[in-house]
Amino acid sequence: MIDKLSKWLDDVLETDIPHEVVAFGFNLYDDDNYNWSIELVGTSEFDINDDDWLCNEVTDFDTRETPFRWKKEADWNQILIEIVNFLKEYLQSGKYANTLKSKAGVGVGFVDGDIEILYAK
């Protein structure tokens, strides 16, 4: 799954980033029956102390229509841990790590949940 997720993220980030984007957020979804999905959004704000920054979406990079989907028998907390670990690794050595780190911050979390900040300038 990690190789497929990395390829998906590479494909998403291959595009030009709108200049209004100041941060990136990864939204996780529990699609029921151990089905999960993730999308990437670009936001016009970033605030390490206020999770609402992720609501100020500029673009979803078309990932709302084409999120990365997978099936795994795990609870939401385990999925979050795995995605956080993957994204931390991607921020270290992923093909477009510098693109993500060129903005004010990167966060991840389940929609309507807490946001974990993975990177902040």
Structural class: alpha+beta
Number of strands: 6
Low-confidence stretches: none
Q: Sketch the topology as an H/E string, one letter per element.
A: HEEEEHHEE
Query: Could you give a short account of the major beta sheet?
Result: 6 strands, mixed
Helix percentage: 25-40%
The span between the termini is 29 Å
On the 0 to 100 scale, the average pLDDT is: 95
Radius of gyration: 13 Å
How many DSSP helices? 3
Tertiary shape: globular
Proportion in β-strands: 25-35%
How many domain regions? 1
Word description of this protein:
This protein is an alpha+beta fold and 121 residues long. The chain has one domain (2-120). The protein is 29% helix and 29% strand. It contains 3 helices and 6 strands. Strands 1, 2, 3, 4, 5 and 6 form a 6-stranded mixed beta sheet that branches. A hairpin with a 4-residue loop joins strand 1 (23-30) and strand 2 (35-43). The N and C termini lie far apart (29 Å).
